[in-house]
Amino acid sequence: MHVAGHPFNILKPVEIERIHSSALKILEDMGMEVAHPLLLGRLVEIGLAVDREAQRVRFPAAWVENWIAGTEKCDWDNLVPSVSASAGIYFSQYQDPATRELVPWTESRLAHYIALARRLPHVGSAALLGSRFDDLPGREALYERYYAWKWGASEGGSILQDELCPALLEIYQAAASYRNQPIQDLFRASVFLVPALKLGRHEAYQVAYFWERGLRVGIGGSMLTMGANAPVTLAGSVCLNLAEQLALRILDWALWSEQRLSIGSSIAPLDMRTIIRPFGRPEMAIANLMTAQIARHYGANFWGHAGLSDAKLPSVEAGYQKALSAVSLLMAGGSLWMDAGLLAIDEVCSPVQMVLDNEFLGTLEWFTREFDVDDEAIGLETILAAGPGGSYAAEMHTASRFRKELWQPSIWAREMLGVWMSKGSKLDADKAADFALAVEPMSPQISEEFDREILRIIENALID
Asked: Is the pTM of this model over 0.90?
């Protein structure tokens, strides 16, 4: 018996068909802009119609349906959603766990944040996107790799500038030599569509540059915003997102022979008063549920953007918003990846929130585990022996199974009010701050020789 991963059908069959047929119409009539001749040529080779002058590829509906039929299928009947996390370090400020103030990053704060992530059992790692410091201008993507590797994080994969591609290649060649691993196993880079269904000039160039060299650049969707770069309605945004996801997976197949169909969702509303793209609204959770049902209909894998918050500091708002999208995603069968510690639409990295998220991730993992419903689990003999009004605290059945059956908190309160007051009346955020401040810093995770080699490559990079 498991809690998460069951069908959660909010769309009627006729509504699924309407979204499906509309998405195919978008792909057939409008298509996708791909601003690079090499990539367009590859799309011609797999049988698609390409307008080279307009840099537009169109996908006939029958061709797309035939392609979907040939993809590897996800076994939704036996699917067990997973819960995983990393401490995402983006273009953000740092919340000092001692003062709770927002302060600029320093290298020591970065090292501590990564060390904290590695100490937390349900987080375990950190990912750095860009550089938080004023280093040599124009080389942020290169410093991303340097600081990530130096302090034991993974790189977020930014490229940013076409001129950095040769230096990025050289950095990964140096890393492959240092670690004695194939460069294909180490290389990590990504680009994202910003307008829907448009792989722009710079992003397309970067994909093509590394593709020619046998290295894969991930291509992420455009993170649609209802009322901005997507229709304001849930139905319209889910439909446009589906078209884009299918186009991107076809591009993955053309470039890398990827046969697995995966459909993701990162749809959020536009706040019409402040013109921001909030993460913590119910529309994101509903769009995830709609897309999950469509993915199940296709037999596709599904992921959704979830566990996020608009709250500026650790708070009730942050907890509610993270739970709203995370729990519903798991219940519908999506696997959850949480950027632990992030607040304020990714503008704040909080060690306190990271510890709180670690606790929450533990509860979410409990939702995905398998519970026994056999004779031993029921314990009928124990029930009968206890009799009416019986106690089970001293029974062997309880002693042998409670650690497996009952989740154990580490931050959340587990005592009555009087005991809690006698221990100092600390809230969860107070205990999280204590834990964060007790983490010891790490030493650099790379040799001095490799450190110097990376800095040499960065200093010699050619930037316009």
From this structure: yes
